[in-house]
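I am still getting used to backbone structure tokens and would like to learn alongside you. To get us started, please write out a protein record for me. Start from the sequence, derive the backbone structure tokens from it, and show both lines together. Once you have written the record down, we can walk along the chain together:
***
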Amino acid sequence: MAQIEANGIKLEYDDFGDPAAPPILLVMGLGAQMTLWPMELVDALVEHGFRVIRYDNRDIGLSHKFEGAKAPGIVRLMLSARFGLKPRVPYTLADMADDGIGLLDALGIDRAHVVGASMGGMIAQHMAFSHPDRVISLTSVMSTTGNRKLPPAKREAISVLTKRPASMDEETLVAHGVKVAHAIGSPAYRPDIEALRERSRALIQRSFYPAGFPRQLAAIIADGDRRERLRSVKAPTLVIHGEADPLVPLSGGEDTARHITGATLKTVPGMGHDLPTELVDEIADAIARHAKAAQEAEKTRTDRAQPAAA
């Protein structure tokens, strides 16, 4: 792991595979550290011939913290959104997308395949419509469009995710992390409870910074409806969504695919709002096939545009 200056802040990142291989940038979700991208998935993508970069978003993990910045309350944010007002927030999803592009700049990468999960999918969408020349292909995983008419998260899932732990001691935090994972995870792929506890403990010991969560959530709510902006996306797009997602229902993925021209939708039975080990190979294969097809299509266009030899 390493830190690098990007978009005026420090970002923590990991870099795997051959530096000369086509790059894939992994963007994580709300309140989630980059280590929630399973190493099994990273390794599988490297085996497919890619350079894989993952990073902590601002305000999470080991990246820059916006200490002291206050986000508006959820009720105020929701009312602002309902009446079409733009609330003042510490930063936006567009800023977070610029972080990812800044990371590519700092690493000397002109263009990359971008894969985002949940809020990371929203950030990746921003990269695709705001920085189209930087995105070879887009993969949006368990994400959505910001369309407020879509079905909401299940009450149990959102309640657990936003509820504060009873105390800040490590064992209580570990138990809370396990409870969250069960509430939003894949019902068909329940992990071993001890493995969940170990993962929760590792995340807490790496970094515990709940103050960033409301600021990231404010950025999501303030971003509003992206459907019209998504219509401008030119990058070949794959949408992956679990059919049993309790936090971002399947309709969010369907709406995303519907509003990006030519997008492919892959739904996964039994998958919730996580990346189960049992599905890693299937997901990695889908991402790799999509990225390689985008590369091949781009090469064909470039070859056709070249003037014929004299």
Summary: Residues 153 and 249 are 6 Å apart (CA to CA). The two ends are 50 Å apart (CA to CA).
